[in-house]
Amino acid sequence: MPTELEATFASLIGKRVSIRLHDPEGGFRDILGHLESPFTLRNRHDNLIEFEHDQIFVWREVIERT
Protein backbone atom coordinates (compact mmCIF):
# COMPACT_ATOMS: atom_id res chain seq x y z
CA MET A 1 0.00 0.00 0.00
CA PRO A 2 1.47 3.39 -1.01
CA THR A 3 2.43 5.84 1.71
CA GLU A 4 0.80 9.26 1.85
CA LEU A 5 3.96 10.89 0.48
CA GLU A 6 4.21 8.34 -2.34
CA ALA A 7 0.58 9.04 -3.31
CA THR A 8 1.22 12.80 -3.18
CA PHE A 9 4.35 12.49 -5.33
CA ALA A 10 2.50 10.23 -7.79
CA SER A 11 0.01 13.05 -8.33
CA LEU A 12 2.90 15.48 -8.96
CA ILE A 13 4.66 13.47 -11.69
CA GLY A 14 5.73 15.89 -14.41
CA LYS A 15 5.72 18.85 -12.01
CA ARG A 16 8.82 20.73 -10.89
CA VAL A 17 9.79 20.18 -7.24
CA SER A 18 12.55 21.12 -4.83
CA ILE A 19 13.53 18.46 -2.28
CA ARG A 20 15.93 18.88 0.65
CA LEU A 21 17.47 15.54 1.61
CA HIS A 22 19.36 14.51 4.74
CA ASP A 23 22.96 13.91 3.64
CA PRO A 24 24.47 10.67 5.05
CA GLU A 25 27.68 12.57 5.98
CA GLY A 26 25.64 15.16 7.89
CA GLY A 27 23.84 18.25 6.77
CA PHE A 28 21.53 18.48 3.79
CA ARG A 29 21.58 18.57 0.00
CA ASP A 30 18.98 20.00 -2.35
CA ILE A 31 17.71 18.53 -5.58
CA LEU A 32 15.53 20.39 -8.07
CA GLY A 33 13.82 19.07 -11.16
CA HIS A 34 10.75 17.45 -12.67
CA LEU A 35 9.38 14.34 -10.97
CA GLU A 36 9.48 11.29 -13.22
CA SER A 37 8.24 8.87 -10.56
CA PRO A 38 7.52 9.08 -6.82
CA PHE A 39 11.21 8.20 -6.25
CA THR A 40 13.06 9.96 -9.12
CA LEU A 41 13.42 13.39 -10.64
CA ARG A 42 15.24 14.72 -13.68
CA ASN A 43 17.33 17.85 -13.15
CA ARG A 44 18.17 20.60 -15.65
CA HIS A 45 21.30 18.69 -16.76
CA ASP A 46 19.03 15.78 -17.77
CA ASN A 47 20.40 13.60 -14.94
CA LEU A 48 17.99 11.17 -13.31
CA ILE A 49 18.29 11.44 -9.51
CA GLU A 50 16.89 8.73 -7.25
CA PHE A 51 15.90 9.38 -3.64
CA GLU A 52 14.18 7.59 -0.78
CA HIS A 53 11.27 9.14 1.07
CA ASP A 54 12.94 8.56 4.45
CA GLN A 55 15.78 10.90 3.31
CA ILE A 56 13.41 13.86 2.75
CA PHE A 57 13.61 16.71 5.24
CA VAL A 58 11.28 19.07 3.35
CA TRP A 59 9.93 19.43 -0.18
CA ARG A 60 7.77 21.81 -2.20
CA GLU A 61 6.31 22.18 -5.66
CA VAL A 62 8.01 24.92 -7.66
CA ILE A 63 5.65 26.98 -9.78
CA GLU A 64 7.09 27.48 -13.26
CA ARG A 65 7.50 31.02 -14.52
CA THR A 66 5.44 32.03 -17.52
Structure report:
- By secondary structure, the chain is mainly β.
- The protein has a single domain, classed as SH3 type barrels.
- 12% of the residues lie in helices and 44% in strands.
- The chain is built from one helix and five strands.
- Strands 4-3-2-1-5 form a five-stranded antiparallel beta sheet, with no helix packed on it.
- The chain starts with a helix and ends in a 5-residue tail after the last strand.
- The mean pLDDT is 93.
Structural class: mainly beta
> For the report, how would you describe the main beta sheet?
5 strands, antiparallel
Count of individual helical segments? 1
User: How do the strands of the widest beta sheet line up side by side?
Assistant: 4-3-2-1-5
CATH topology name, in short, is: SH3 type barrels
What is the radius of gyration computed over CA atoms, rounded to a whole number of angstroms? 12 Å
